[in-house]
Amino acid sequence: MKPVDQTRFGEPGGNCFQASLASILELPLEAVPDFCNLGEDDWESGLNEWLNAFGLFAMHVDVTASGRELLRWFTDNAVALASVNSITTPGSLHSVVFYKDRVIHDPHPSRAHMESEPLSFDAFVVVDPAKARRAYVAWERRQIELTPR
After folding, report:
1. What are the tens digits of pLDDT across the range 25-76?
2. Closest Cα to residue 105, out of 41, 26, 49?
3. Domain span at residue 62?
């Protein structure tokens, strides 16, 4: 996980989800579509279509009693993108990166959401390990090509 901060704030228009996803995938912000602001009702389908290129699928889970247990189990082993109540924009949701049962990255520059409790989370599941590996190798090659000599 490489922290990426959001560049737009408020609702509508904030890009905390985009920044959290970029952080988890260790991609630059501009390499990740801003799914929440594309104007599509079913942005989660677009997200999973895009993640398919990486061999990944986002499984959305609401944090109920059983969901909280799943979150605890999942984040003991991997990072998740969690939705929390926004402190900076009351009445809205805010995306953060969750690991080991706590927020490890708040893309808002104030870091006001570091103690927030998740309402839901997206667990990233590898559905095609070979595709995930190929995407990583391709990304690694691009990094080498972009490195000044």
Report:
1. 999 999 999 998 877 677 888 899 999 988 899 998 888 877 778 888 888 8
2. 26
3. 16-146
Structural contact between residues 21 and 81, judged by C-beta atoms closer than 8 angstroms: yes
Q: Is the peptide bond before 12 cis (omega within 30 degrees of 0)?
A: yes
- pTM exceeds 0.85 for this model: no
> In angstroms, rounded to a whole number, what is the distance separating the alpha carbons of residues 129 and 146?
26
pLDDT one-digit tens code per residue, 94-142: 999 999 888 999 999 999 999 988 999 898 888 887 877 787 777 677 6
Question: Is the CB of residue 120 less than 8 Å from the CB of residue 82?
Answer: yes
Tokens of 27: 């991609």
Q: Is residue 6 part of a domain?
A: no
Number of domains in the chain: 1
Residue 1 lies in a domain: no
Phi, psi of 11 (to 5 degrees): -135, 130
Rg of the chain over all Cα atoms, to the nearest angstrom: 15
Cβ(38)–Cβ(46) below 8 Å: yes
